[in-house]
Amino acid sequence: MTSVATSNGPVTSTPLIATSFYYSVQGQIRHGEFPLNSQLYVKTCYHHGADWIFCHGIEEGLSQLAIQKSSGGRELVWNFPLQSSWKSTNPHGWPRMIVSLYGPDELGNDDVAYGYGSTVLPICAGHYTRTLAIYRPQSQSLLHKWTSWFTGRRPELIDPKTIALNEGRDVLRMETLGYVTVEFHTTFKDFQSLGYDSSISGPEKTSSTLPIF
User: Most buried of 10, 16, 50, 187, CB within 10 angstroms?
Assistant: First the structure.
């Protein structure tokens, strides 16, 4: 509420009408399971619509290199923190997080892309645990397969955000590499003031496996 003061005292008060809402996400990339890879690290970035503004946090993240235990477990543990705050005037173009997996290969190259995955950030307030499928690009032809084997360079996306777009996905060939478990905790401000509902109950807040591509 705002008020106008005059010599005769306050006159009227008018409510402040919100024109934007704020959305905050905290969490972590906990761990992953990759039967064919013993050493991997994670890169994160976001894709969002034109009406969304990234306010602060970790817009592009890079984790440490996780190494599987010598005891034979297939789990890679990162516990990599996630933090982002957003501002928007409408939900269209809701942010999507892109996860890219990198690591060394047999030839000693240290920055080899192994797979990609993505998920829409939770659209309601609360705590969420998701399991993301990670996909590895495949060679488009036999010639490309031979070239990849001979040079030691695996097929990779020029822009990891391609995994979050509709355009061009029909020409990509992918295979499942493994899975990554991610935790989110989301909060809103002024969301309901614009006529939206950020609350949800029931099984929506439980763990879910999202083989999204």
Answer: 187
